[in-house]
Write a structure and sequence with these properties.
The structure is a homotrimer of 346-residue chains. Chain A has five helices and 37 strands. With 346 residues, chain A is an alpha/beta fold. The longest helix of chain A has 17 residues. Chains B and C meet through β18, β19, β20, β37 and α4 of B and β1, α3 and α5 of C.
Chain lengths: 346, 346, 346
């Protein structure tokens, strides 16, 4: 596809062809900036990658609205198009060149589907899929090979279940969700009550509910509770190897990075960002728009709109200051000992 | 079921009907206290949930032996029953209303079972299960769809293997165990010896042993060792996404929360509690009854009955004090600099 | 096998038979030092295990070149062989007694293999395996039951895929690799761009590449990027439950312990060791030969050959000193308050 065609399809008005430059290379694909062969389109968001404009062998670049960078590109014979959000535009450009794999509609004969299952139109069910009694599948559902769905689960329209994931009994998965390989939705929460004669198992009679547009990463686990629901609201995106304990309530439009762990009954507001390996203790409440940086350990409630860090988590600002001093503790301690000795002597 | 019948079945002697209150609502199910529709039974353990007695729309409550709470319930028209362990009683109440899904006895024709497999009576084997040579299955074993069992593993009576879990060669799983979806039992430990020409793979000839009553959470991994056993003793419960390295020995009645990781050769005593995301280094020994709070990083042995926290883990008491001061480090540092400058000047 | 035969097969010249001791026990197997029945061979690397030579019931020991230990062994009637690397020699000894399970060549009739798949010679494909269009399988590939391979993936010679793992579209897996149960290779990276109307999904058009000799542990997840490759170079070994984000580049001969998490675009050099539960933030670069101790949280680049620890990670030396002082913070703080009060008064 010609660069001019890319510009047209992305509907961008600010680009090198409009800036007295007649470069119109053939774009054969997209590539990362540090490994972009000739013929590819790449992008630069600015910051430490800005210098890459002088090194890249890409034929075209998506740039921020930075005239100097644009000029540098032209000088190196690189066509450009500019946008305030280069990464978003790049995402749209990928969609011009790449169509994700999607199997053809149809039910493989090796799938084992209980006769009571309700099936929407235009669905795909791959080989060795097992769908048990009372399950409901919406329209255009796509179920990859070796998925298992326990009884009475519901899968909404256009939802994709990737290979080897497991959906447990009574789970409700909305429309346009993606459950990645190996994820387990709605299994029993970890409910054991200590007694003198050992653990008493609390049966987990509740269910897991994923609203529309939720994605769950590979090998993540979303438990169901003893009573009530574990609920993940609309358009929340969860990365790989994440644990969501029984009875958690997660708001909409959140993003939870890999290996995050939420204990039982945690309440997370809307638009919350939890970075990698964050842990949140039982029953804690995280306000709307809050951010927890990587590896934070949260034991108490977090106010809306705040950023927290550390174990136990404190305000990110304080964490930055305190952790910068951490390395100086030995020096401080030595001085403290001197002072103390001195003060004891006096 | 009438409230009076619930009381009778749970065999509780302390309740509102016995306290001059004739409320006997129909109980249709159980619910969490903050989302309990009329007709449901819920529970309050006390603490920060006590205030919920004034807000809940539950028709009946399990309460602690707290007369004031009981009086409040009555005033709001809520029947109650009381017990020193409300959560345990609630667990028993769930069992009155909920019967966990259990497939009917039988072996699905799509299961691939080696002719040498020994099979107990009244077992369930779901679709697409693969059971390899020399495996022994006890009575009433329940093997959900798409489980794979490698050669010569043993599964004890009444043990359940959930969909998509994998049991590796020579694993010994006792009676009344539950292995949740995606868990992997007895795979090769991570045994690579560094040499000048790269990693030398140490074959893992040992096996994983789970004694009776052990539960392993979804996507958890229990490795087998080079020689000897990785052993998890009776009634220990392990949550999701937990890693148990090769050669670990875990005592009985422990609880390991989600995302805990044990390196190789760790020895854990009986009745140990490891909270979420705790990590324990190679060969460390954890004494009976010890507790590690969430995210602790344990490098050294932990004495029986102690509580540890932090990275590296120290006494929980000290951790609480020290971490409370962490936020004040900037202030301390500033003062330290002043003092130091002052002391240098003198 | 006689002890003398073990010595001969391992080609060791330094042993008890050569040291005027005629002990030549029958060796029936190998065992860990603290649970070694008579008839077994075990090993001691020194350090805290050295005392075990006085307690073990093993019939033979691999020892370090330590004459005192060797003398102690003889006095207890234990044959020994010695090497500067006892663990490596023990690994070689295991290989004399243990042959890992390997299924016979053949393709199970229940496997679902697309007609376009290219198949090498002498491969094993287990029951219920699903291999989709355009996949290439090398010679002597071993694919255990219930594995799913998405379209156009490539699996090199002698590579083993364990039960229930999933290989996503276009992944390239080299020769002599091992992918353990439940691992997911080449699934979509976590690519969501924030916009005013919510998350915009960035399609992940790249692929995951594993070079020769790579091992990926159980339930680990290796994501593919939006463009370009996620690459793991030769002979790097990755343990269980590890997350490798989209676009990471990992060098050769690294070892990543369990539950390590790498965010997107991380660059790891050769011969790097990441201990358990380490986390590395987006785009960070880790130099050749660097080591991160357990639970480190790395936000910035790490110099080659250095050891880092802590959250955020600092030099291991500094971490050791600073963390030793952590417990004294309360004492320091109290003194600081006194001093401050005193200084305010003056």
């Amino acid at each position: 596809m010609k660069f001019s065609e890319v510009i047209q399809k992305l509907d961008v008005s600010f680009h090198s062809l409009a800036s007295n430059c007649d470069l119109d290379p053939e774009i054969t694909g997209l590539a990362p900036i540090d490994d972009a062969p000739p013929g590819t389109l790449s992008y630069i968001e600015g910051g430490k990658f800005a210098a890459m404009v002088n090194e890249t062998t890409a034929s075209a670049l998506i740039l921020p609205p930075d005239e100097q960078l644009q000029q540098q590109a032209i000088e190196r014979g690189i066509a450009w198009l500019a946008d305030a959000e280069p990464r978003l535009l790049f995402a749209k450009a990928i969609a011009l060149f790449y169509k994700p794999f999607r199997p053809d509609v149809g039910i493989h004969p090796s799938a084992v589907i209980h006769p009571s299952v309700q099936i929407g139109r235009d669905i795909y069910v791959g080989p060795n899929v097992v769908i048990q009694a009372g399950v409901k599948l919406g329209n255009e559902v796509c179920i990859h090979p070796n998925v298992v769905i326990y009884p009475r689960a519901e899968i909404g329209d256009r939802t994709t279940l990737h290979a080897n994931c497991t959906i447990h009994e009574r789970s409700k998965i909305g429309a346009n969700c993606v459950i990645h390989s190996g994820a387990v939705i709605g299994a029993e929460g970890f409910g054991f009550v200590p007694t003198k004669s050992g653990w008493f198992k609390m049966e987990q009679s509740g269910c897991a509910v994923l609203e529309d547009g939720v994605e769950i990463g590979c090998n993540s686990t979303i438990d169901r509770p003893a009573v009530g629901e574990t609920r993940i609201a609309q358009n929340t995106k969860i990365d790989n190897l994440v644990q969501i304990g029984h009875g958690c309530q997660i708001g909409s439009n959140c993003a939870l990075a890999a290996q995050v762990g939420l204990a039982g009954g945690v309440k997370v507001g809307n638009n919350v960002l939890l970075a990698g390996q964050v842990g949140i203790a039982n029953q804690a409440q995280i306000g709307d728009g809050a951010i927890a940086t990587a590896k934070s350990g949260i034991h108490n409630d977090v106010e809306p709109g705040t950023i927290v860090s550390g174990i136990p988590a404190v305000s990110h600002k304080i964490f930055l200051k305190a952790s910068a001093i951490y390395s100086r503790l030995p020096e401080m301690y030595q001085f403290f000992r001197q002072m103390k000795r001195h003060s004891n002597e006096n």
